[in-house]
């Protein structure tokens, strides 16, 4: 009999973390590595947020807090939702966790029973299916084709819903594609969901503030208030304020769900870091100019990477609406052989050969549920991105 649980056997380690770790190992061996696999801003956390954390330490805010967030932070989150999204929540409808991932995980663990289905559009963030499996549910994947902007259609959503569907997870702008659901696209999906009152909506809005050009962010309960009573709207400070390591995410939804999530959190991690909570409070209540500045930088980098990749033979890179990822197609490269003799049988083979032969680490598309593609995070300097694109172009030119 295996010592490890059967539940653990249902899931796999995060591919993005594995690839990032492999890139670090190669760099430690002295290889010239460019890692474009990690999804975190390369900027420092804004100074006023860091100062707030120091002040919290000096003020003695170093003890346990309420399990799912200090009252001041919950009120600030309510204000954020009201001012930016037109959503009316009270503090009892808000939960704060150790990153957005914990919010999602708590919601699924608190609600899923064996056989419950969760609809997940692909390409998806790598953790969604495995969190569903850990919670005892069944992931139901819908493919959002590149030809449709990596978005699912209302018809696809309608066809995927069954009596066992409990949740649909929507992520806009998306990791890994940067694709967004504008108001028209989102309304098409919410109209379907209004016809199926047993289906709940888990909206992952973590990239809300990283949108480009004329794209306007919307969240499902904002587009269709009738869904508010069965929607969990998740967000956090990680991406918008360069606070990935601070580990603060939050969500708002029906009070009964929030209580259930708090009950689960009370028996797992308990409260998020007290210092990080006060830092998050400063992020939400303080100056917001950082967001505009970082957005402009990311848009410039997006344009650099899209242009560079589309200059590579066999790569087709759409222009994303947000986040800091591109998700190009390499369908024209499958079946070729690299200059180093590697057979490009699929996108994982492409990513492996690219790392081994050029030192550029990307994440293969199969990890996100849609092949043959790969993901690049352009959350690094212009010079590094230009170098990476040049290496990728040389690699593609060497394929035969």
Automatic annotation (TrEMBL):
InterPro entries: Aminotransferase_I/II_large, AspAT/PAT-like, NHTrfase_class1_PyrdxlP-BS, PyrdxlP-dep_Trfase, PyrdxlP-dep_Trfase_major, PyrdxlP-dep_Trfase_small. The keyword Transcription regulation does not apply. The keyword Transferase applies. SUPFAM superfamilies: PLP-dependent transferases. It comes from the Bacteria. Its cofactor is pyridoxal 5'-phosphate. It catalyses: L-aspartate + 2-oxoglutarate = oxaloacetate + L-glutamate. Keywords: Aminotransferase, Pyridoxal phosphate, Transferase. GO terms for biological process: amino acid metabolic process. Its EC number is 2.6.1.-. One of its GO terms (molecular function) is pyridoxal phosphate binding. It holds the Pfam family Aminotran_1_2. Residues 32-392 form the Aminotransferase class I/classII large domain. Belongs to the class-I pyridoxal-phosphate-dependent aminotransferase family. Homodimer. PANTHER family: ASPARTATE AMINOTRANSFERASE. This is Aminotransferase. It comes from Paracoccus denitrificans (strain Pd 1222). The lineage of its organism: Bacteria, Pseudomonadati, Pseudomonadota, Alphaproteobacteria, Rhodobacterales.
